[in-house]
Every structure is written in structure tokens, then in C-alpha cells.
Amino acid sequence: xxxxxxxxxxxxxxxxxxxxxxxxxxxxxxxxxxxxxxxxxxxxxxxxxxxxxxxxxxxxxxxxxxxxxxxxxxxxxxxxxxxxxxxxxxxxxxxxxxxxxxxxxxxxxxxxxxxxxxxxxxxxxxxxxxxxxxxxxxxxxxxxxxxxxxxxxxxxxxxxxxxxxxxxxxxxxxxxxxx
Amino acid sequence: xxxxxxxxxxxxxxxxxxxxxxxxxxxxxxxxxxxxxxxxxxxxxxxxxxxxxxxxxxxxxxxxxxxxxxxxxxxxxxxxxxxxxxxxxxxxxxxxxxxxxxxxxxxxxxxxxxxxxxxxxxxxxxxxxxxxxxxxxxxxxxxxxxxxxxxxxxxxxxxxxxxxxxxxxxxxxxxxxxx
Lengths: 179, 179
Description:
The structure is a homodimer of 179-residue chains. Chain A is α/β, with parallel strands linked by helices and 179 residues long. Chain A has a domain at 50-172: Rossmann fold. Chain A has helices at 26-30, 32-47, 60-72, 127-138, 157-160, and strands at residues 10-12, 22-24, 53-57, 75-79, 89-95, 100-106, 115-123, 142-152, 166-172. Chain A has a five-stranded parallel beta sheet with strand order 4-3-7-8-9, with helices on both faces. The first copy, chain A, has a two-stranded antiparallel ribbon with strand order 1-2. In chain A, strand 5 (89-95) and strand 6 (100-106) form a beta hairpin. Chain A is globular. At the A-B interface, helix 1, helix 2, helix 3 and strand 4 of A face helix 1, helix 2, helix 3 and strand 4 of B.
């Protein structure tokens, strides 16, 4: 029997703005069983793809990104907002619903030829994951998979990440109705 | 023989401003051996204090905070900047060299009577760690220890955290001179 991830994800209505349901994964991380089930299930998915390093984006992608790397016996590299990393970086801009945002990684985060497992807590529109894939490729690495905890399948994340191998632990086909 | 943590910490001169040496832990996280040695050593220190949950602050305290919780078989709770957490929070302001900053946690992050292990990557002036201790106590929990990767012992962090049990993997008695 598989773990009930959905039961540990809090649905918050009208956050960050009216009409939007926010998927709060903090209760999952706070639960010892939830944390372990998340890391173990993602690690099993990732292990088959034989990555050399995990790349996660700040801030929520850091929480299980380090644990996932540890479970796989590999290192963890961080993608951050521009200006947050202290050393030399490469940067990628991506489209939001309104305007643009950007992510940066250190130039030594990924080496030429390295196989990279992308991780984030949530797959929504796929903007940050796509930016991470581009950064990996710019540094000469290969994306061997993108593993998320929750996937909002009613948004076009998979479409934006077409050509990449995508996995998630819990899949929301329609937007949740808060209790 | 213990792991050479210092060798994996990059010292960056004049960051974020002239005259300040920045301790960049990203090379440590990117190294499989560095990541494992960090998590295992912190977990051994933490295990003796029998915590119920790990509390880490965004963003860099998330990277090994989740892995540390996973290694201890407990959950992870997140302290974030005000406005970043979607549910009901408690908040604590703390002094910086110039001005103030604040941290928040969800009201269910720590339960009454829980034993909490505080984690962050770096102990500098101790402001964020002190804020986390206050938040734990406001929610009725007990801080059983504060474990850091690197400690800048030439700054008054331990003084500010007097009365708490403090550990670190690598201790800088004097400010590093960048190579």
C-alpha cells in the first residue's frame, strides 16, 4: 500500500490571491512518516536514472532536495534567485503569467557530462523547472529526470517540460476544493 | 580521522560588501562525501539530544535541515521570512547590525512539549537562531540543541545563544583570509 501523500498536503483557499488554492506541503515535511515516504519514493524513482547530482530551487525545493541527494549518495546543487549566490553564476530568465523571473546557479554547480536530477516540491506551470533544465544544459550537463512531490496536472507544466522525463508522488487532475 | 569540512568551504572576499569574507558552503553540499559527512556528523550530535523535530530557516538552512530530519527519523519544520508561509503563523523580530529582521513559523510547526533541534548552515551573530529559539518556546516547545555546519567564533553568536546547547562541525576562530 502506498503512502497517502494527499492527506498530508493542506489546501489553502484564496492564497496567494482570491480564487487560487495553495498546496501547502509543510504538514508533509513535519510528519516523520511523510518526510521518509517522500524521500524514499523520490529516491527510488531517481536511482533508476543514475544521476550524479540533484539540482533544487530555493526555497521549498531545498527542503527535500538535500535529503534526496543524501539518499542517493550524491551531491546537491542549488538554483537561487539572482543576487543570492556569492560566486560566479549563469542565469536564465523565464516567463510568468505576468512578467518574467530568473534563476541562477554557480558555474561549478554542474560539470560537463554530469547527469542531473531536477527536484522541486511542486510542478505547476513548469517555469522554474524549465529554467533549471536550461541552466543544466548551458553548463554541459544532461537532465536525466525531474521529480516533484505534487503535480498540478490541470496546469500546463508537463507540456512546458516536453522531452524531459517527469515524475511526481501525487497528481491533482483538477483543482482541489478546500474543506 | 574526521572529514575536512573547511576544505569544502569557499571563502569569498568582499562579499556581500567590502572587507567581509563570505563562507560559501555550496561546494560542501555539491560534494557527495561533504554532504554525507555533514548530515551524519550533525545527526550523531542531534541523536543524543533526542529531538522530536528539526527546525531550519530559509533558505540555506533548508538544504541540510530536511536531510538531518530524515537521518534522525523525525519531521522538519520551516522558519521563513514573514509573508512566505501560507497558513497561520507566529512571528519574531530580531536585531541586525543595522535595523531589524523577522522570522515566522506556522502555528502547528511545533507542538506543546516537543523537543526541537534547531539547524542552520552558519552561526554568525546568532540573530536567526535566537529568533527560532523564541518561536519554539512561544509555541510551547523546548530547544534541545542548535547544530550548525560552520561557526564564525569571532562573532558573538554563542553569547547571544547563551543557555542553549550549541554544536558546529567547523569552527573559525579568526576571520579567514581568502586565498
